[in-house]
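Schema walk-through. Below, the input block comes first and the output block second. Nothing else is stored per chain. Lengths vary across the set, and this one has 368 residues.
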Amino acid sequence: MMRGFTKSITFITVFLVATICHQFDTSGYITIDKYLDDHQEQKLLMKSFSDIVSSYAIPIGFHMNRNVKIAAVYPCIQKSNYWRDSVTSMEKRLDELGIRYETARFFSKPSGDFRLQVKQFADAIKAGSDYITISVDNENMKRLVSTVLAKKKPKIFIQNLTTPTKEWQSNPPYMYVGFDHVEGAKIIADQYSKIFPKGASYILLYGPKGTVSSLRGGGFESYALAKGFTPAAKFYTDFDADKAYNAVNDALKRFPNISFIYACSTDIAIGASRALEELGLLNKVIVNGWGGTLKELNLIKQNKLDFTVMRMNDDNGVAIAEAIKLDLINNADMAPQIFSGEFVTVTKEMTNEAIDSLIERALRYSKK
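--- output ---
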């Protein structure tokens, strides 16, 4: 009896914390548009580098005396395949480029593993890594990375972030790599506007408190407000499918007339879809995916997810490999500060053949 009571209190506590309003705070970041306004020379670099990423690999052309050491410090213990596919695509592109390398993988959960991530980052540095590609989704990790950026070695890729950090302007990372969260949020807001041209109320499902939630969730809320959408409830779900499932069940009891659910990630979309299916509300309450992972696309094919913004996923790993090549041939100045990959909107109205064609393009390395 006591055990059940404890679980109930825990859930209520989670709910109360989850519904705290999240503000769209970009004060610590520079949007891509603003960055390019201030750094016009980067436009040509970004265009030429994107052409390299989308083209066939050109081998490095000389014999390397040693392997370069690359560390991937990623929060990839989740249902989304983004992070693991990133490592795979990077390695396969490095192989094509003829670059000798060793990859050290340091994997963690997207939320609650801060101490582990700190240790992993320290281990990557102690191992003598030449390059570290890392996700920085909270202020504590950001401070740790700052100390390494100031030393200029190892070279740092900030993965899954394309909005430069203001405090790093004097000591920037080698490259910001990913798919712009704010742009993705805008694309999803535009799609919901087509479905609900007169506006609607919705549930907003953030991940954990941090950069990604602020840009994806807060960014969407900002665009959605201008389109006549108002949030009925907001939850932090830690990119956890079960927490998203519980949040949707609870919110729909309180707000049964909402029109759609904005999900900030694959895992969140999976949990939300499961809740709607059990409640018999699939196709009645609309829910989106975020990223266009294989799990999302399978749900779309099964008519259990309405649409998603799909990343051309493997381009991020290819970009890291090509930037390493530029550094090794002493052309690091040809690497742009930002690589922001392409999005494509995928809907349940599309044929399986059309979706499969996009999968082949997005996962051109990792799916082989």
